[in-house]
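All the exercises in this workshop are built on plain-text protein records. An example says more than a description, so a record of this kind follows:
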Amino acid sequence: MLKVMIVDDMDIIRREIKRLKLWGEETGFVIADEAKNGHEALEKLMKTPVDLIITDIRMPKIDGIELLKRITAEKLCACVVLISDHSEFSYARQGLVLGAFDYMVKPVDEEELKKLLLRARDFIVEKKIEQEKIQQLEKSLQEKLEVYFPHSEISQLVELMKVMDARTKEYAEHIVEVVYTTLNYDLIKTESVLNKIIYEIVSNLQKDYKWLDKFIINKELESVGFSRFIDLAFIKVSFISRINVITLLLRKLHYGIAVNEMMEQVCRCVLENVDNGISLSTVSDLIFMNKNYVSETFKQKAGISFTEYLTIVKMERAKKLISDGRLKTYEMAEMLGFKDIEYFSKLFKKHTKCSPTEYKNSIMHKY
């Protein structure tokens, strides 16, 4: 049986839908769960996936359209059906544009819902079959690609990235050419290997920079579909853009690189403890140095004050937390040591040119 979640802020609507005599063998669907708003639905989906979401459009906290966006962006459910009042047709139409399977008008008609469910069942089953085929192809391809993987070249590239060497871009281009040539100029195979290399690079860097996972936004490193491109030049640009995401983050956060031992210790303390109320006093205590000396030396070596650096780190951490989508703005602010949510939002906008909400929307639409 395929599983359904009903999402509506009105108990009576959820009860009416559950009481319809079409669940089970007749349609192939059973109601597995329900939620009173989009926020609750997302929390439940993270823990227990379902095959179909039937959701109201107008709800508090996270409405049906926002829920649809999140489900589509994070691939949490194969099929979403919207229910709405007659007056909300424009919202329903927006939902269809955003990827909803269909929509129904309240009150829900049993016969119409049955027809919709039968169509949805065929759609979901077909999608599952396609996904299984893709997974088998990827598995088969991956087994073939294990024969070739440039481990030594990756290690060399990682070392260049760690010291901000100017040859990083050139060497990244070299890796693309080696992979492309070795795999007989096959764009699809090249894409698969290069995407794996990106994550291998991050994994290698994390051995020395255990804090990196707190800041890397995974969506920025996901497959970019190299095989859509027609020549090696575009493949290089796409691959190097991912390398740049990582190197720019290292440059922004890790002032300790090739400077001195104290700077290395200060940066590491801040980056590893950004969620734990870190401050100049706590850093000084952790590295057993005078607070004023740490402050003066940091500004002299980094060119910015310790407070400015700490703010940069917190804003980069906030970007990661927002992209993960698990915390509300006030929860993020509190985690990062900001008691005033308005001040946190103002500071975030100063550093990113957009509010936390705008940044969240841009991440969803960009990827």
